[in-house]
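PROTEIN DESIGN WORKSHEET
SECTION A - STRUCTURE
LENGTH: 501
TOKENS:
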């Protein structure tokens, strides 16, 4: 096995092996469990960094294993794969530190951290999948690995949320399975990037390709939280804050959104998608989801549910960017894959700090909280302003690039969607900031989880501040040649011929 074959497998195994070992560590051995978690998370970051460094030197990283019957398990570290793997690995490390502090002293931590590691294994497998079959294997593995995290608390509400989650995700997975089998029958292994096979079928099979596309998008749309397939996401907020952060920033919803990117650009290809007029309906669905999610967020008093509907809205910027056939909008979609993850994990960390330290769960309880927890609410402010689209936070870059992308292709209506969305974002985030910073406190808060120093335990506070700082830095340094935006732009350029926008 060459180094180019070993490294993609090692990236996946860096969380799989610790995850399996954790199930055999006694519940009382918290230190051993934490060492396994943190060493696996750190190893994944290092391995992804090594692959990026080697890729910049022109080296390829691919592992192929023939399962039989023309089925091939393929891992391939191309540009989009490394972008998603970078997001997963870095945020997993940050979330692991947060989760260790959040669950300190809680029961069933062995089960939680075992499935937590398996969840990230599935996410990195999805990122590195080199064909549709491999993608589907890890996609369904993700469903099974996240269910125990959703129902972790074991309350009737959590169990009901878990059932809802399974109904939606298994239903979506079944539809996706039909699409994957259908695609395999038409094209064979369906390696990502091999778009010529479907293009060759286009003249005689227009109706078939239309139906195949929408079957695949329907299957992916559940985890991508496209309306009306989003219903599981707000319900799943009964899970602990680290799980909510993982679901919204790294794992489940990003798997669906990344799948949409792969299907449009690496299965159908942008040329065929435009020729068959597949992108216009996808853009409309994404725009409806953006507005609908924001409208629902306005009415939520529970902080995590408000953030959940915000995710429904914000995630569809990725689908919208994919559906606008131009390099700028495509770059916006890819950069939002990362930017949204960092900003949203900041917000969920803040919500977890409020809940664990002061038992605050509702927007109506936030009056004056900025003076009691200034660092937490400072990070929340950065994340919220980023979601609104205020410069210089990372969210501004997405909306700016999407707007330019709409103008580039003559889709001026995108500007109206962005304006409406930003106004709605402001309508449900600014009242939180106003209450936190400008209103007097209604009562004295009782500290339910005291910290040795600072406003919250350091393992909760430090990851929150790091995520908030990243949200700011990603926007401040977006114009540099080594930024996520530059990376996303380079990937987008490979998907479009020089003659197209």
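SECTION B - SEQUENCE
RESIDUE ASSIGNMENT:
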């Amino acid at each position: 096995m060459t180094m180019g074959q070993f490294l993609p497998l090692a990236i996946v195994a860096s969380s799989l092996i610790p995850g399996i070992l954790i199930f055999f560590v006694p519940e009382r051995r918290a230190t051993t469990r934490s060492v396994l978690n943190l060493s696996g998370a750190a190893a994944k970051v290092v391995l992804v960094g090594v692959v990026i460094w080697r890729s910049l030197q022109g080296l390829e990283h691919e592992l192929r294993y023939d399962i039989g019957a023309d089925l091939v398990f393929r891992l391939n570290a191309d540009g989009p794969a490394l972008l998603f793997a970078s997001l997963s690995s870095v945020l997993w490390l940050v979330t692991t530190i947060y989760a260790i502090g959040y669950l300190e002293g809680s029961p069933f931590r062995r089960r939680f951290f075992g499935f937590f590691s398996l969840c990230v294994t599935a996410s990195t497998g999805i990122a590195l999948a080199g064909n549709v079959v491999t993608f589907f294997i890890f996609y369904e593995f993700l469903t099974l690995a996240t269910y125990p995290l959703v129902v972790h608390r074991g309350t009737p509400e959590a169990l009901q949320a878990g059932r809802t989650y399974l109904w939606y995700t298994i239903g979506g997975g079944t539809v996706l399975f039909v699409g994957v089998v259908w695609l395999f029958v038409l094209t064979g292994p369906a390696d990502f990037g091999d778009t010529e096979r479907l293009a060759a079928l286009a003249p005689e099979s227009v109706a078939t390709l239309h139906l195949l596309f929408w079957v695949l998008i329907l299957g992916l749309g559940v985890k991508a939280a496209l309306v009306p397939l989003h219903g599981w996401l707000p319900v799943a907020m009964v899970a602990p804050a680290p799980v909510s952060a993982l679901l919204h920033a790294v794992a489940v919803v990003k798997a669906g959104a990344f799948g949409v990117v792969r299907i449009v650009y690496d299965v159908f290809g942008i040329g065929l998608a435009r020729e068959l007029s597949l992108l216009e309906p996808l853009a409309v669905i994404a725009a409806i989801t953006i507005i609908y999610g924001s409208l629902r967020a306005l009415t939520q008093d529970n902080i995590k549910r408000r953030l959940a509907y915000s995710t429904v809205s914000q995630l569809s910027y990725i689908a919208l960017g994919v559906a606008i056939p131009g390099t700028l909008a495509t770059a916006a979609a890819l950069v939002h894959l990362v930017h949204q993850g960092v900003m949203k994990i900041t917000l969920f960390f803040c919500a977890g700090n409020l809940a664990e330290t002061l038992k605050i769960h509702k927007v109506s309880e936030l009056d004056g909280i900025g003076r009691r927890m200034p660092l937490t609410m400072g990070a929340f402010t950065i994340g919220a302003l980023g979601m609104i689209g205020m410069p210089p936070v990372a969210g501004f870059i997405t909306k700016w690039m999407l707007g330019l992308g709409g103008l580039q292709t003559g889709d001026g209506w995108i500007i109206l969607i962005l304006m409406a969305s930003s106004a709605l974002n402001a309508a449900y985030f600014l009242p939180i900031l106003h209450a936190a910073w400008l209103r007097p406190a209604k009562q004295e808060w009782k500290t339910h989880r005291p910290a040795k120093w600072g406003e919250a335990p350091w393992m909760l506070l430090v990851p929150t501040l790091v995520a908030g700082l990243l949200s700011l830095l990603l926007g401040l340094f977006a114009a540099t040649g080594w930024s996520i935006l530059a990376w996303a732009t380079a990937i987008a350029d490979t998907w479009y011929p020089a003659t197209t926008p």
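SECTION C - NOTES
The chain has 21 helices and two strands.
Residues 321-501 form one domain.
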